[in-house]
Write a structure and sequence with these properties.
Length: about 425
């Protein structure tokens, strides 16, 4: 078997990594990962036939003797993670690690858009933020990159700490902590402890934290871990003051910001909906200023950024106006979305809400809380999708078992003239609905 150093030498000559034999660039390295229903080792030969230069496998029967294109290791996933950590150790560029319950992907996108105005930035694509996505992202860092922004996610205790050991960030940012993945974390305190593992890691290595000083939970978490490392640099602790407002659904979020009391105000029209995005924008401004991105470039980046992937998207279909925030949902983000929807000016407001997953024993109570919240928002029509909402829905609500039932209803009875909030956990697949609205 080859040593990690020997595999790294191969990687330097073939720095494109794939774990899918159907996506093989010429000269790439194929890592034969295993899953609950598949064994990547069985696809190693086809990956080589498709153009990969090497296949990393962990079952000897799939590594023909004498064929140097096969790299036999004890564990493919562990090798991928070790290789990424080793590659990170060779880098000298600053690395920013982002985590949080809500907004981490949008924050990562905004921060990267701002930094890209001045630097060649490598950042996490999509939401590849887990034990497989993070090492793949780290291995995309090339000599030409000047800074890296790495998103990390978790749904169980210890996961952020595990990813921290790979990322070895120079800077860290927690967007917020909320009531999500309670089934895995056990409680809200479990959420805070796990997200706080990023603070623990940075503090232990004397690295810097971008602290949202408007978030009481984050302030308390920082104070619990010693305080001084988090407040010694006021430029990091005190974020630029950002105001925002939503006039109506189609005007998006307009913000004003300035670095301190002596600077002129900047006014920026964004393509984001929802006042909950103000914190994400504030983070992007803070990081941009810290890394000396000119203020006019920060303004341009914020104005040019257009959300995708069903995150805070506004869509005017000609038949209806949609606020599509259907990539994920938890009690914190659902409440924020409904709070924002209250202030959207529209003649006929409707909400299509999908179940919030992974809440464990708190599920019924949290879904009941959303039903009660809806009674205060003035939403005229509500459709629920999923069994959790069905159990607590009121007679005035329409309930559907799954998204297919909703799609059938929309085909049979199309909707027009509505302003519709669409939000639910990714597993409810509400992102399939906009094309029918």
């Amino acid at each position: 078997m080859k040593s990690l150093e020997q595999i790294y030498e191969i990687y330097k000559e073939h720095p494109v990594i794939t774990t899918d034999n159907r996506q093989c660039e010429p000269g790439a390295m194929f890592f034969a990962l295993k899953g609950a229903t598949f064994d990547g080792n069985r696809f190693a030969a086809s990956a080589l036939e498709a153009g990969c230069a090497y296949a990393v496998v962990d079952e000897a029967e799939f590594a023909p003797e004498g064929d140097g294109r096969y790299v036999l290791v004890d564990d493919v996933l562990q090798t991928l993670q070790d290789l990424a950590a080793y590659h990170r150790q060779q880098l000298t560029i600053p690395v920013l690690q982002i985590t949080g319950t809500n907004g981490k992907t949008t924050t990562k996108e905004l921060v990267s858009a701002v930094l890209s105005k001045r630097y060649n930035v490598l950042y996490t694509q999509g939401n590849l933020n887990n034990h497989i996505g993070v090492p793949r992202t780290l291995l995309r860092i090339r000599p030409e990159h000047e800074i890296a922004v790495i998103e990390t996610g978790a749904n169980h205790p210890g996961e952020i700490a595990f990813l921290c050991r790979m990322v070895q960030a120079d800077y860290g940012l927690i967007t917020n902590v909320g009531r999500a993945h309670l089934e895995g974390f056990g409680s809200f305190d479990g959420v805070k402890a796990t997200k706080g593992e990023l603070y623990d890691d940075l503090s232990s290595r004397g690295k810097a934290i971008f602290l949202n000083c408007f978030d009481d939970n984050l302030l308390a978490m920082a104070k619990e871990r010693g305080g001084e490392p988090f407040t010694e640099n006021p430029r990091l602790e005190v974020e630029p003051y950002v105001e925002g407002r939503v006039e109506d659904c189609s005007s998006f979020l307009k913000v004003q910001w300035r670095g301190d009391d002596y600077e002129p105000w900047h006014s920026v029209q964004t393509h984001l909906v929802g006042a909950y995005n103000i914190a994400n924008i504030r983070a992007a401004v803070t990081v941009g200023l810290f890394f000396d991105v000119p203020t006019e470039d920060i303004d341009d980046a914020l104005a040019e950024y257009v959300p995708t992937n069903s995150r805070s998207e506004f869509r005017d279909t000609g038949r209806n106006r949609l606020i599509v925030d259907a990539y994920n949902a938890n009690p914190t983000s659902m409440n924020a979305a409904l709070d924002n929807f209250q202030f959207v000016k529209a003649d006929s407001k409707m909400a299509i809400l999908g179940d919030m997953r992974e809440l464990g024993a708190d599920s019924r109570r949290e879904h009941q809380g959303i039903v009660e919240k809806l009674q205060q928002t003035g939403v005229e029509e509500v459709w629920f999708v999923g069994e959790n909402f069905r159990e607590v829905a009121l007679p005035c609500h329409r309930c559907f078992c799954n998204v297919d039932e909703v799609k059938a209803e929309l085909v049979a009875h199309p909707l027009e003239g509505r302003t519709i909030l669409i939000k639910g956990s990714n597993g409810t697949k509400l992102f399939q609905l906009p094309e029918l609205l």
